[in-house]
Specification:
two-stranded antiparallel ribbon, 3 helices, 28% strand
Length: 146
C-alpha cells in the first residue's frame, strides 16, 4: 500500500483547493455557498473516492468481463442518530451484462466482492476505520482517535 499526501489550501471563506503531488486539483466547498461553486463537499469527495477506488479495482478483478459501460453510483444516507457521521454508504454497480451469460455474471459479482473484501483501500478503510490525528503547528497532537 502506497502512502499519500494531499495539500489543502484556503482560497476564501468555506472555499478550498486540494492538490496532489502530481498536479491534480479539486475544489472543496459548502454545497449551500454559491461563491464556492462548482466544488465538491468533503462527503462528496469521500463518495467519489469509494466509486473511483471501486472502478479502478474492478478493472483488474473483473477484467475477464467486458465492462466499458460500467457506472458506479455511491450514495450516503444519514439519520439524526448518526450524530454528524454518514450512517450508510451504498455503492451500486450498474452494468448491462450479456443476457443469459451466467459465467459473466458470476465473474463480475466475484470481482465486485473482491474489490470490497480485499483490494479497495478506500472501502476497507471506511469499513474498518483508521486512526486520525490532528497535529497543530507546534507539532503537538490536538486530537487522536481510532
Amino acid at each position: 500500500m502506497a502512502d499519500y499526501r494531499i495539500e489543502t489550501v484556503r482560497n476564501g471563506y468555506r472555499n478550498w483547493t486540494a492538490r496532489n503531488d502530481r498536479g491534480a486539483e479539486v475544489r472543496i466547498g459548502a454545497d449551500d455557498d454559491p461563491d464556492a461553486q462548482p466544488s465538491f463537499t468533503p462527503v462528496e469527495l469521500l463518495l467519489a473516492a469509494l466509486g473511483g477506488c471501486g472502478g479502478l479495482v474492478v478493472d483488474r478483478t473483473a477484467r475477464a468481463v467486458e465492462h466499458d459501460g460500467l457506472r458506479i453510483v455511491v450514495e450516503s444516507r444519514s439519520r439524526p442518530e448518526d450524530d454528524g457521521r454518514v450512517g450508510v454508504l451504498r455503492v451500486t454497480y450498474e452494468l448491462d451484462l450479456p443476457e443469459g451469460d451466467e459465467t459473466a455474471a458470476k465473474v463480475f459479482e466475484r470481482g465486485v466482492r473482491l474489490t470490497h473484501e480485499k483490494y479497495c483501500t478506500v472501502s476497507r478503510t471506511v469499513e474498518h476505520g483508521a486512526r486520525v490525528e490532528a497535529v497543530l503547528p507546534d507539532g503537538t497532537v490536538a486530537f487522536a482517535a481510532g
